[in-house]
TrEMBL record, chain A:
GO molecular function, one term: 4 iron, 4 sulfur cluster binding
Residue stretches making up the 4Fe-4S ferredoxin-type domain: 298-329, 362-392
Residues annotated as transmembrane: 6-24, 67-89, 109-130, 151-173, 185-204, 216-233
Pfam families cross-referenced by the UniProt entry: Fer4_9
GO cellular component annotations of the record: plasma membrane
Protein name per its UniProtKB record: 4Fe-4S dicluster protein
Keywords, ordered alphabetically: 4Fe-4S, Iron, Iron-sulfur, Membrane, Metal-binding, Oxidoreductase, Transmembrane, Transmembrane helix
Species in which this protein is naturally found: Marinoscillum furvescens DSM 4134
UniProtKB/TrEMBL annotation, chain B:
A GO MF label: metal ion binding
Domain of life of the native organism: Bacteria
InterPro entries in the record: Cys_rich_dom (IPR004017), HdrC_iron-sulfur_subunit (IPR051460)
Listed Pfam families: CCG (PF02754)
Upper lineage: Bacteria, Pseudomonadati, Bacteroidota, Cytophagia, Cytophagales
GO CC annotation, single: plasma membrane
Protein name as it appears in the record: Cysteine-rich domain-containing protein
Coiled coil location: none
Domain Cysteine-rich, chain residue ranges per copy: 22-108, 149-236
Keyword vocabulary terms for this entry: 4Fe-4S, Iron, Iron-sulfur, Metal-binding, Oxidoreductase
């Protein structure tokens, strides 16, 4: 009998492992659609940033209540995985609670501790469901959250609650079977939380209890495998990508825009300056700025996968607050959607990037780009150091330089800078007039 | 005013074989905008009184290129930047002070990659240093003593470059009661003019950003809204006018407040 369940377990593990592997490869390929960007400096500072922001959740604590609840789920997720390890070993080896004999009394404590965490996870998830669906926090109900994003958010919370309940059911029925002296259920001592639910299962027959225990065990572990695959299609991917994302995030002052070296070379040639290298025209087909996902850097694309759509960026965005179309969260969601669409098309042997669509225009409109004040509020707000502003500014470059389609007032400003050396139409000869005026009063 | 103030240019000084300690980068708003020229003058009066060795580029100064870059015209930005760097490197400029956070950000963070490496500081930090060094004394704070002042963070000073405390320390030196808006420091709300918005109309929406911010500033009950940026100055002043509060609430730059407390507004 055990050999059959062991085989079934191996098959299920292999099946989900394969799905997960395929999906991870796909995501990696999608991120690699982005242009190359060398990020290999200041490794110590990067590690520190990752430990503080991702592992230590530093930026979450700007909002203490959700930060605390989120921390409970996060700690629960990490530590309960130790129990998942035991469950996987049991599944493969045909054992039952393989760690128990080695750990003795400490095992009882450990499982009790996990149960407390499970209870806290359930509590946090319930509060989060209420926050999302009852208290109507505005950032959860913006236009870009209609449909799948809202369903996705609720599903994640519900799945987590169900999985935690499965652990408690599994443990409670196990305890009852131990009391009944079932040979397959060795004594472990009473667990703290599930021990309180033992009475609930007392009336059932031994065979029913075995079925219940096994069902809960299988449901929990298969549920976890399925959830792991689901996560890769969901905003919940942040649980993994928050780590590399914070590691590779910019360490420079937020106000600094990346220099376009290809333009520096051209400007130097125009000004008759020594470029220090072979002066060559930019390669054929090269475009300035970003029109589609492959013009953005791989880090911009990783940002999009790391986004969990919490909307803190949008809640702080001055344009969004005052009713403009721009939402930094939507910029990230659109980037991800475009990447997924291109990736799916390529997977099917379709046209991929050449499908006649592009991130600019079909996903993100100029009106959104033009509303940005580059104030960095979104960048500051993001708990996993995503930079929506960087994407906006790269797309503005494409609009201004490749399409010459910047707003008319900006084109006039450009003209003023070119001819009057100031963004307003004042005569350069009047620039120093204030020095006379200072003594006039 | 007893004696007239002379403003040396880098060219004047170079002709005499001198180099100033610091270049005062005036910026386009500081040079042309009627309201912000007052800030330029106030700052120069302070420099003059303290005896800081400074000079300006005068007619040789041009736009840093910041608005062009934020609006997407990288080409124009780099043309401006290269030209300015050539001029400044020609004079051997080492240190720059400016009252414009946009110029400050560009000069400090974006010029080095194009060959312009300088020590760049914003006038709020410069004023704070003068106060700390005892060069600006502000005996008793004068007319601002105990009065409510709120400070509006410039995005390009605050979030962009982490300058939050210098402007506040300057205000505290006035003995004023510094009252914070609900959204301040890292969470400060933009005035609405950054990212080249200053040079175009806002996109369609239900409200102007500067009105949202002005309402917040007025809620503090402060009689003075202190700013440290020419764009913030315009946006907040327009907001106060829109709310018809210009007789009770003044929008002032840090340099103006210090100059006034020092009795330099003659």
């Amino acid at each position: 009998m055990t050999i059959i369940s062991q085989l079934a377990f191996v098959v299920i593990l292999g099946f989900f492992g394969f799905l997960l592997y395929k999906r991870i490869t796909r995501i990696k390929k999608n991120i690699q659609l982005g242009r190359d960007q060398q990020i290999d400096d200041r490794k110590g500072d990067r590690l520190r940033q990752m430990l503080l922001v991702a592992f230590g959740q530093q930026k979450m604590f700007k909002k203490p209540l959700p930060a605390f609840l989120h921390l409970l789920i996060y700690v629960g997720f990490i530590l309960i995985n130790i129990e998942v390890l035991e469950i996987i070993l049991d599944g493969l080896l045909g054992t039952h609670r393989v760690f128990a004999p080695f750990l003795g009394g400490f095992y009882t404590f450990l499982i009790s501790f996990f149960e407390v965490l499970a209870l806290l996870v359930i509590f946090s998830c319930v509060v989060f469901l209420i926050r999302r669906n009852v208290t109507k926090i505005p950032r959860f109900h913006k236009i870009e959250m209609k449909g799948w994003p809202t369903l996705d958010a609720n599903l994640i919370l519900i799945i987590e609650i169900v999985l935690m309940k499965a652990i408690l059911t599994m443990n409670a029925t196990d305890l009852v079977l131990q009391d009944l002296g079932n040979a397959n259920y060795a004594q472990t001592g009473t667990f703290l939380i599930s021990g309180m639910f033992v009475d609930f299962f007392d009336g059932f027959s031994e065979s029913t209890l075995v079925i219940m225990e096994r069902a809960a065990w299988w449901f929990h572990i298969v549920g976890i495998f399925a959830f792991a695959v689901y996560v890769t299609y969901s905003k919940h991917l942040h649980i993994f990508l928050a780590f590399p994302n914070t590691y590779y995030s910019r360490l420079e002052p937020k106000g600094k825009m990346n220099n376009m070296q290809e333009i520096t070379n051209e400007v130097k040639i125009m000004l008759g300056m020594n470029t220090g290298e072979e002066a060559s025209p930019p390669p054929e087909g090269m475009k300035f700025g970003a029109k589609d996902v492959n013009d953005l850097s791989w880090k911009n694309l990783m940002d999009a996968y790391a986004c969990t759509e919490c909307g803190r960026c949008t809640a702080e965005c001055p344009a969004n607050i005052t009713g403009k179309k721009l939402s930094p969260r939507k910029i990230m969601m659109d980037t991800r959607d475009r990447m997924e669409d291109v990736g799916l098309s390529l997977q099917k042997g379709g046209k991929g990037l050449e499908d006649g669509k592009s991130l600019l225009g079909d996903y993100i409109s100029k009106e959104e780009l033009n509303a940005c004040t580059s104030c960095n509020a979104c960048v500051e707000a993001c708990p996993v150091t995503i930079n929506p502003l960087d994407i906006i500014l790269q797309m503005r470059r494409y609009v201004a330089m490749e399409e010459s389609a910047a707003p008319q007032s900006w084109n006039m400003m450009f003209q003023n800078v070119e001819t009057n050396f100031a963004p307003w139409k004042f005569a350069p000869t009047d620039r120093f007039n204030w020095a006379q005026e200072i003594n006039e009063k | 005013m007893a004696e007239s103030i002379q403003i040396p240019t880098m060219a004047d000084m170079a002709a005499k074989g001198e180099t100033p300690e610091v270049l005062f980068w005036v910026g386009c708003a500081g040079s042309y905008d009627d309201r912000y020229k007052n800030v330029t003058k106030a700052f120069v009066k302070i420099l003059n009184k303290v005896g800081v060795s400074f000079a300006v580029l005068g007619p040789e100064e041009t736009c840093t290129g910041d608005p062009a870059r934020r609006a997407g015209n990288e080409f124009l930005f780099q043309m401006q930047a290269m030209a300015n760097i050539q001029v400044m490197n020609g004079y051997g400029v080492q240190k720059i002070v400016t009252a414009c956070p946009h110029c400050f950000n560009t000069l400090k963070n974006e010029y080095p990659e194009l060959g312009g490496e300088y020590e760049v500081i914003h006038h709020s930090t410069f004023l704070q240093q003068l106060i700390n060094e005892g060069k600006v004394k502000l005996a008793g704070g004068g007319e601002f003593k105990g009065k409510k002042i709120t400070y509006h963070d410039s995005c390009f000073l605050g979030r962009a470059n982490n300058v939050y405390s210098a402007p506040r320390e300057v205000l505290e030196a006035l003995d004023a009661e510094l009252v914070e808006m609900k959204r301040c420091k890292t969470k400060g709300l933009c005035c609405g003019a950054g990212g080249a918005q200053m040079f175009k109309d806002a996109e369609p929406g239900k409200k102007e950003v500067n009105i949202e911010r002005t309402e917040e500033a007025l809620e503090t009950g402060a009689g003075t809204i202190a700013v440290a940026c020419p764009f913030c100055m315009t946006m907040m002043s327009d907001g106060v006018k829109n709310k018809e509060k210009e007789s009770e609430v003044k929008v002032r730059d840090l340099a103006e407040l210090i100059a006034e407390a020092e009795g330099l507004n003659g």
